[in-house]
Design brief:
GO terms for molecular function: potassium:proton antiporter activity; sodium:proton antiporter activity. This is Ionic transporter y4hA. It is found in: Membrane. It is a multi-pass membrane protein. With about 375 residues, this protein is an all-alpha fold. It has a single domain, classed as A middle domain of Talin 1 (Up-down Bundle), CATH 1.20.1420.30. The longest helix has about 35 residues. The relative contact order is 0.21.
Length: about 375
């Protein structure tokens, strides 16, 4: 039996995370010239594509919905580590960094990734189908997490400003962990079928029958996926001074830097969701979108609650009026999208317009 030679894609996918890790080590904490910023951006793009490739390898081995969960949780854990690191190091916007990043992640996933996936699927297949039961449960969890963690602090009275008191923060952290843990148990054990792709008649769609990767190849991809994700987040941090300088030069609010970094960090999920939509696996795209929003809130708030023991200064979690309205509108639209269990280009357009409104109002508040 002739051993098949690895393709160019496989070679690049294996080598690029290591290249990105080396680039991260060489550039971390340094001021970069313009030409090197461009090189780092190229390496960052390659790391994102590599992360998507290895996530799909792992997903093929473990099956859905575990594959979507692997990518969402891996990216979020590293994102949380980055947020905590930036907050501990201090800075001009460190008090509101967690709120701005989590809110940006929620709007990017619930409107940007979801809208793009629905548009890709609807353009190709006219009408896309998904499981309303599983998607509805995920949306309910995201809604509860976002409201308890980002809206309620604006209206509490125990502490001045849009922030929790100590006991309130502990309660929000415990509630977030419990909600997220309950969802993962439902998604992977109790009602796994609710999160698998379905046909127009509501029956489970046929799964891919290609030969799954070997255990060795799977574990290799797991390791390279983690390296690629660390590199993506780290290089996004390396690029942040150049991004901040560009934002300042354009006259945009400094908080928009967090939006740009969140978009960079969420690129692996965005590409993976778009590719799944192109294969008429909209349920997988939705799992990635809502799962990422859920993990971002459900893991960040407990981590910030623990980190607040060492953090100096206020921890602002409550959203402003404009942000609250955008979140409420996003939830209402998402409910109307989910209830029928199918969607067209119209629903995709509505979500993308909301995403555009979020970007525009982040630039021109």
């Amino acid at each position: 039996m002739v051993k098949q030679r690895p393709s160019l894609l496989d070679v690049l996918a294996r080598g690029w995370p290591l290249l990105a890790a080396v680039a991260l080590v060489l550039t971390w904490g340094r001021t970069l010239p313009t030409w090197l910023v461009a090189v780092v951006a190229l390496v960052l793009a390659g790391a994102v594509l590599s992360a998507v490739h290895h996530a799909e390898v792992v997903a093929h081995r473990v099956g859905e919905p575990f594959g979507s969960l692997v990518l969402a949780v891996a990216v979020t854990i590293i994102e949380v580590a980055l947020i905590v690191t930036l907050m501990i190091s201090g800075g001009e916007n460190s008090s509101s960094l967690a709120r701005d990043t989590v809110f940006a992640a929620a709007m990017i996933t619930m409107n940007g990734i979801l809208g793009l996936s629905l548009l890709i699927g609807a353009r190709r297949y006219h009408l896309v189908n998904f499981n309303a039961e599983g998607t509805g449960g995920a949306l309910a969890t995201v809604t509860a997490l976002a409201t308890l963690s980002l809206v309620v602090p604006t209206f509490t009275t125990s502490h001045p400003g849009p922030q929790f008191s100590g006991p309130q923060l502990v309660f929000a952290a415990c509630a977030s962990l419990f909600l997220y843990g309950s969802f993962v148990l439902t998604q992977t054990v109790r009602h796994r079928d609710f999160f698998l792709p379905v046909t127009a008649s509501g029956e489970l769609a046929e799964q891919d029958h290609a030969e799954p990767p070997t255990p060795k190849a799977t574990w290799t991809s797991v390791g390279l996926l983690l390296v690629a994700l660390v590199a993506v987040v780290g290089l996004a941090k390396v690029e942040s001074p150049a991004i901040e300088a560009g934002v300042r030069a354009a006259g945009y609010p400094l908080s928009f830097v967090g939006v740009v970094i969140a978009m960079l960090v969420l690129l692996p999920e965005s590409l993976a969701a778009a590719r799944a939509a192109g294969r008429n696996r909209i349920q997988i795209s939705i799992n990635l979108a809502l799962g990422s929003a859920m993990a971002s809130i459900g893991l960040t708030i407990p981590a910030i609650a623990i980190a607040s023991i060492w953090l100096d200064g206020p921890l602002l979690l409550g959203l402003g009026a404009t942000q609250t309205v955008l979140l409420a509108l996003t939830i209402v639209v998402s409910v109307l999208t989910v209830v029928p269990g199918r969607a067209t280009r119209l629903q995709a357009t509505v979500h993308l317009i909301l995403f555009g409104a979020f970007i525009f109002l982040s630039i021109k508040p």
